[in-house]
Amino acid sequence: MKKTRPHRAQPGTTPGIESMDDLGEPPAPGTVHVQCIDYGPDQTRTQAVTDLGAFLRLPRPDRCPVRWLNVDGLHPYVVNQLRQSFGFHTLAAEDVLRLPQRPKLETYEDHLFVVARMPSLRDGQLCTEQVSFFLFRDCLVTFQETAGDIWDPIRERLRKSGSRLRRLGASYLLYALLDATIDHAFPILEAFGDQLEGLEEEVAEHPTTKLQRQLHRLKRDLARLRRFVWPMREVTNQLCREETAAIAPEVRTYFRDVYDHTVQVMDMVESCRDTASSLTDLYMSAVSNRMNEVMKVLTIMASFFIPITFVAGVYGMNFEVLPELRWKYSYAGFWLICLSISASLAWFFIRKGWIGRK
Amino acid sequence: MKKTRPHRAQPGTTPGIESMDDLGEPPAPGTVHVQCIDYGPDQTRTQAVTDLGAFLRLPRPDRCPVRWLNVDGLHPYVVNQLRQSFGFHTLAAEDVLRLPQRPKLETYEDHLFVVARMPSLRDGQLCTEQVSFFLFRDCLVTFQETAGDIWDPIRERLRKSGSRLRRLGASYLLYALLDATIDHAFPILEAFGDQLEGLEEEVAEHPTTKLQRQLHRLKRDLARLRRFVWPMREVTNQLCREETAAIAPEVRTYFRDVYDHTVQVMDMVESCRDTASSLTDLYMSAVSNRMNEVMKVLTIMASFFIPITFVAGVYGMNFEVLPELRWKYSYAGFWLICLSISASLAWFFIRKGWIGRK
Amino acid sequence: MKKTRPHRAQPGTTPGIESMDDLGEPPAPGTVHVQCIDYGPDQTRTQAVTDLGAFLRLPRPDRCPVRWLNVDGLHPYVVNQLRQSFGFHTLAAEDVLRLPQRPKLETYEDHLFVVARMPSLRDGQLCTEQVSFFLFRDCLVTFQETAGDIWDPIRERLRKSGSRLRRLGASYLLYALLDATIDHAFPILEAFGDQLEGLEEEVAEHPTTKLQRQLHRLKRDLARLRRFVWPMREVTNQLCREETAAIAPEVRTYFRDVYDHTVQVMDMVESCRDTASSLTDLYMSAVSNRMNEVMKVLTIMASFFIPITFVAGVYGMNFEVLPELRWKYSYAGFWLICLSISASLAWFFIRKGWIGRK
Amino acid sequence: MKKTRPHRAQPGTTPGIESMDDLGEPPAPGTVHVQCIDYGPDQTRTQAVTDLGAFLRLPRPDRCPVRWLNVDGLHPYVVNQLRQSFGFHTLAAEDVLRLPQRPKLETYEDHLFVVARMPSLRDGQLCTEQVSFFLFRDCLVTFQETAGDIWDPIRERLRKSGSRLRRLGASYLLYALLDATIDHAFPILEAFGDQLEGLEEEVAEHPTTKLQRQLHRLKRDLARLRRFVWPMREVTNQLCREETAAIAPEVRTYFRDVYDHTVQVMDMVESCRDTASSLTDLYMSAVSNRMNEVMKVLTIMASFFIPITFVAGVYGMNFEVLPELRWKYSYAGFWLICLSISASLAWFFIRKGWIGRK
Amino acid sequence: MKKTRPHRAQPGTTPGIESMDDLGEPPAPGTVHVQCIDYGPDQTRTQAVTDLGAFLRLPRPDRCPVRWLNVDGLHPYVVNQLRQSFGFHTLAAEDVLRLPQRPKLETYEDHLFVVARMPSLRDGQLCTEQVSFFLFRDCLVTFQETAGDIWDPIRERLRKSGSRLRRLGASYLLYALLDATIDHAFPILEAFGDQLEGLEEEVAEHPTTKLQRQLHRLKRDLARLRRFVWPMREVTNQLCREETAAIAPEVRTYFRDVYDHTVQVMDMVESCRDTASSLTDLYMSAVSNRMNEVMKVLTIMASFFIPITFVAGVYGMNFEVLPELRWKYSYAGFWLICLSISASLAWFFIRKGWIGRK
To answer: What ipTM was predicted for this assembly?
Structure first.
């Protein structure tokens, strides 16, 4: 996996977004996309925002009680504009930009700040992307590292009139987005589970270092998945309990559902980890067994021929006085000796179970 | 094990049963069976329901204070009809259909929603099936994936007049069904325990990769069992404590009994896991020992014959000046040398304990 | 170990003692023994009860405020008689009979129900037996699987006038019996500890599969011990805290003592488990070392003789033109070559530390 | 790593700083450096303190509400002077001098005492240094083992007028210093992560004891890092919650940020530990595979030549009656036999997968 | 380690000191030493007590508000005399005598009972000794198994006037003694740490079973240390929190210091355990590597000579028709063949990295 170097501040520099570079300079065109969706039970208005500063000064449209501002691409200038308009804490604004953050929930007076991670598979390897949410009573601001399509079904649902999503306000929108984010882990875990199942056969039959490395990488990905799902569990649990005006009471049951999904993801991760660790045992035992087999072949080959080669060597000696050389049936006797040695060795190996049993 | 692909929703789609496919279309005849048992201390009436919509509009029979509606086979149409009639939460109704769910207990105003798993063995491998319960004060609705016979003894008991089951209401029925479900794990665990005991002898005597794979599968099944018994423990514990009108006070002691059984199942699972992991150690040590034995045979064979073969080779040389060749007792001397080399090697190997001690 | 098949009910059958077989039929004579000891500060009366039904209807003797009813051997008929007389809960009565139960404490209105396990060693293997206690303010009913002698010292102490046991009531008797039961684990653990210490020497010197199997069995026994001591700890801890009239306040300090002993047993079990697991490491390393040694002998033997055997082979060739054959000092030269090859190999092996260092 | 022997007191000696050696004697010039920075929103005054006793008696400058006294180098004389002036507890003063202490937070009436550890890498190995903080409402006293440059950015920030650091008082200064200290762990962990990634390739291809030792040392360093980050987490968590006048309310959010960083460090440490332990598995399997390969080469070589060498030996015998010696096509026949033996062995090895598959 | 058999009671015997043997009989002279130190801010009086019974009836000296009674050597007679005089609970008195006890703290109405363990190294092996404390408001009674010198520094400090020890009462004395006891673990752990560091080099270079056994013993000692430090942590933690008149409020901070030391000991134990377990991995990998090396030497030796020995054997055959025997350059050709075989094998081995790379 190509690793993105984390965007950490130098130890000791001023905390908060105010001291970041590029704060005063707008992003290059096309690197950051801001989309605003205003919606209510009656209507939905979608617009791509180009001049964010001007847009934020406009009044909100009528009969659209909820606003969803989605920012694809992270840039200090944009985050800071939104911070000034919405009043985010300077550390929260910084957390949106400093990657990676651990999933967490922070409560402020009139809003919640949620950091989550969205997993995906690229070339069979786990990647994760940070998503940040600021939830107000009537507005949700979301930040994504890159433009993705996993929230498209939700945009689709916002367009359908009469949907629960349009009726239930900003906290339900947060629920829908978080749910889509977590649910993204299921197909990934199923892919991992399939890989592990496929490895079982391979490992038992042809244990190679390549397989063990594959296992090592799977384990690493599983450990990474686990490390961000664990705090997600805390976050969703807190969302079920948090006493805040930003979350509508009827939405709490839905957050319980996200919590359940997170626990299920946790369970599947643990299950895969157990299997991977048991496969390592299976691997080691298959390697040992193969070694055993190789050794047995060597031992059997050597044991059969070493004694009779010695006998042949004896009668290749050039002593002047070596009476057997002149006997008539010596040669036949020699083969008799060889046969009887071989037969007794064969009997010994069969009794040991080295021949005839695998 | 043939794995059923889980019935998960696409990430991002509308949650709740309303957005599922097949919602408007009744199931093919014969795929879903609904049975209704109305009972009370005095009588029991059993009927197979064919037209569920019509049935739900009928009044309940007299002198049968408790109703048990059991649905075998999961179909959105049927679950939705019952949801509308009984007022299940849309997410709960969805959970009945989206498999697999983790065992859990959810409390609603006038009812409880319980998800449990029922284990069974098919061809020696663990399968589990989801069972869902909606417990009202005077009614229990249950859903099973497939028609099974494990609740037949309870139907039998409902027919016996004077039984506690007929006296104690819907929550006692829930207890009886949950108890039967959990108790199903005992024979499975005993089968696993017997398999492990059988493996011990095999593993110590003939350690093969096949055995290790069998062990690997047992471990996987045990891990799976553990993963659903653990939340079952929470569920039964909550049932002992939940303050709800749906559970009659005199039934709490019975739920404590189910809790005890769940803990016992947990204990047995842990015990089997310990044994399996200790068997892996035993396996590895048996493999190493066998390798040792093979190596010893090779070393002993080679050590005995390699030196004397060399001696024979020496006197097979064709040097013109090789005085021993002409001596009279050379041949006898050759055998003497061979014997003394062999004797000293034998002494060495016996002292090392490689010969004569296994 | 000969395993007693557990006495579990079929899943789905009616819970409680009422539905058990043999309920109506008294046990065969000689299979169940009931002993009643009535005692107080002044006197002690011991009697073997033959007709339990009649006995229970008799009034209790004067000046004997405490009664201890001990039942050796478990039979539904007897347990049910006592249940009707004392008012045990039907599930508790069933738990006395359904083996094995996990140690537990259940509180009822006027009595406590305690299940404990008593460990013992038979032929060096761990066996455990269930003991059940019903503690009332002035009476203790105990059930044992088989008649044992471990409570005899307490019967002895009951006969001595002036002992604390005779002054302090039924809860102190429970304490004395539980204490004797727990303390039984100490000699067993010491035996295990001695076995482990003995194994250390053996394992390091002669690692055989037999030893590893012995270790495997010890581990299994330790795991089993642990599994019942753990809940015993909870039980004794609850006994220290339970607010119930059945336990006299001055006896609480004594239960704290039993709790301390249970924790000490736990500690010793953990200690033995650690040692056993470290012995497995020691075993594997001893096996590997022996293999190393075998391999070294083979390599040294082969390396010394293979090259010089080749040299001898060269001069055993029958080429017509092979000038060395005719030289005068060829034979001496041959031995010189052999010696110098051997010497350089010896130097190589000594430098590697394969010869002369073990 | 060159280990500094810990500065522990002899068991049994008087606790507290009063009984330490060198208490009465000032440190050698140049070993201890004291720097005092007085600052406020308007101005910052920095001075190197040479005569500490005289300095502490001087009044503090106007319009500088906050004072930061930093001591580089630990000496009982200096610590004691400050103790007497500021009223530290004698045990706290001792803890500053007795190395190493575990990170901790102690609350006194008018001040907090915080012990932290600052990690650094020297020659690729982890070193840690103790830093102690005494936080008063308007003053912070800090002690470092040696003069370091990691707090220089903060001194820099103190010089910039208008910075939050100059506005927010002593507790914000503590936050800034602690934050810089914790953040120092990130580059170290990234270096460890890179080392582990580099090891993966090496371990799979050329498993040598040297690599395993490197892994062993990495593991040891990670364990050490973990052991001091864990209590740091507790300390920062307490700092978020501690109800004390010494911490300004608006600074709490900032301490929550330090806490988040500590948790992230913990996460990365755990991640590295998982990877290291999985690399050990990979290592062992690579070693076994290489052994397998070596054995296969030996077995194949020996198996090919041992039988045909025997055949050659047979016809090197000197029996007078050995008819094949005189046949015309014997020699061709001999090669035919050799070829057919080799061919059948080759077929056997290819079928086994020992030749042609790696 | 020579193991002292534990002094446990037979299961079932009367609990409490009253039923112990030797209760009525004073100990043999010279086996038990009682020392009494009365002290106060003004003076200290030390006396060896010979007739304990008479001594306890004497009034305490003036101006010595605190008394420390130390008993070296455990004997029921002596403990019982003190019990009757001070009113210890019978079970506590028994715990002083029944070895080993787990460290614990028990609160009685007017006193505390503390059991601790004091570790020491004898011949490089860990020994522990039980120390018991009864703390009253103005008196401390201590029991040691054998006379030791680790409390001598404290006796020394008691003789110095003006020390905190003489001012602060019995609970401060308890603190000083406990602190000395715990601090005794530090040099032991440093010795273990040095041993482990020394083992690292040895294990990587010359892995022998002896080293692994040494490691096994270190692990066992560490596990033993851990097992008594863990409850010591609880004890010292309780001492910081216990609401009792026996502990002066200003001494609590000092107990927090002991608690810190205990946690530090715990940390060091865990650190050593981690290192030991990582050394086991290192050991196994070093063994495997050595085996690999041995195998490589064997394989290289055998592979070089086996083919050319066969060639020599071919030309040692006595066929009448073997044309090469008569060719003129056969012998030179033979060496050419040998050289080319060796060269291609050498190339093969170098490419594999078996020659020239370690």
So the answer is: 0.83
